Fold this protein.
Amino acid sequence: LITSRIVNRQQLLAIYRRMSLIRQYEDYLYKLFLQGKVPGTLHQCQGQEAVAVGVCENLRLDDVIFSTHRPVGHMLAKGVSANSISAEIWGKATGCAGGKGGQMHLVGASVGAMPSNAIVGANIPIATGAALGFLISGSDRVAVSFFGDGAVNIGAFHEGINLAAVRKAPVVFVCENNLYAASTHVSLTTLIEDLAERAAAYGIPGETVDGMDVLAVYESAGIAIARARQGDGPTLLEYKTYRYPGHSRGDPGNYRSQEEVAHWKARDPIDRCRAVLTADFSCTTEELDQVDDECLTEIKQSVQFAVESPDPNPNEIKTSVFKDRRSVK
Ligand SMILES: Cc1ncc(C[n+]2csc(CCOP(=O)(O)OP(=O)(O)O)c2C)c(N)n1
C-alpha cells in the first residue's frame, strides 16, 4: 500500500482525530456565534485542516510554530487544549492568554505554540529569529511559520526568508494559499500561480503541494522539517487549500462563486482521510463516527469550561503588558 509507506493505521487515525477536532470546533463555535453567544468575531479555518495537522504531526513538542489571525487549527494541531482556547475566546482568566488576547491571539508556549500574530506576514522574521536562536544555541529544534497568500508581498516575507536562507536557519515557511486575502483574489496581487517558485529567489527549495490531501502535506512537510533539523536550512512550502467560510464572521464570502466553493468542498480533506482509513486500513464508519463524537464532547466541555470560568482580575490589567522602561517610575 502506498499509504502505509507514509503512515501506519494509528498515525492516520491520530491525524484524522486532530482534523475532526478542528473542523467540529470551528463549526460548533460558528453555531454559537449565530446564537450571539460568542464574544468578538472569529476567523475560521474550515477546509484548511490538512495543512495545520499534516505539518504539526511532524513536529516535536519542543519545536515551535508561529500562527496568524486564523490560529485555531494551528493551535489545536500543535496540542493546545480546547479548554484554554475556548476560555481565551470568552475572555476568561483561564484562557491561554489570560483572557487578554481573544481569538486572534492564541498561545500555548508549553507545547511550542508561540503567540499568534494578526499582523499579516509579521511572524515570518519572528520565526526566523527563533530558528537562529536554536542554531546559535546548538539545539536541533525547528521553527515553523504559517502564513497566507496575502503575506507573500509583505516586506517581512522577503527579509525573513532571505535572512533564514543565508544563515541556514532551521525554519520551514508554510504558505496556506487559500486563494484569497480577505476578498482579494491572489491573481490580483501576484502574477505567478505557484507561490513556492519564490523560493528560487532566495536559493532555497520550494514545493507546491495539494493542501487538501493530508498525506501529501504530511510527507512534504516531513522532508522540509527533517532538512531544517539536520542543518540544511529553510524550505518554502505552498499548500493549495481553501477556507470554506468567509474571511471573518461578518463576511458571507460573496466574491466567490458557488461553483468554486463546491469544487473545493468536493476535495474535502477530512472526507478524503476517512476514505483512505476505510480503504487502506479497514476502519469502519462506526469507529470513525466515534472519534467524531469524542471530539465533539471535548469541544462542548471546553465551552462549558469557558462559560463557567472566572473573568480576569481587573487589578491584573497591566500585568504581561509591555512597559516602556523610560516611563516607569
Ligand atoms: C499588515 C497587515 N495588513 C492588513 C491587515 C488586515 N488583514 C487581516 S487578515 C487579512 C487578509 C490576509 O489574507 P491571507 O494572508 O491570505 O490569510 P487568510 O486570511 O487567507 O488566512 C488582512 C488584509 C493586517 N492584519 N495586517
Summary: The pocket of thiamine diphosphate is lined by residues 69-70, 118-120, 147-151, 178, 180-182, 247 (CB under 6 Å). The first helix runs from residue 2 to 6. The chain has a mean pLDDT of 96. The two ends are 68 Å apart (CA to CA).
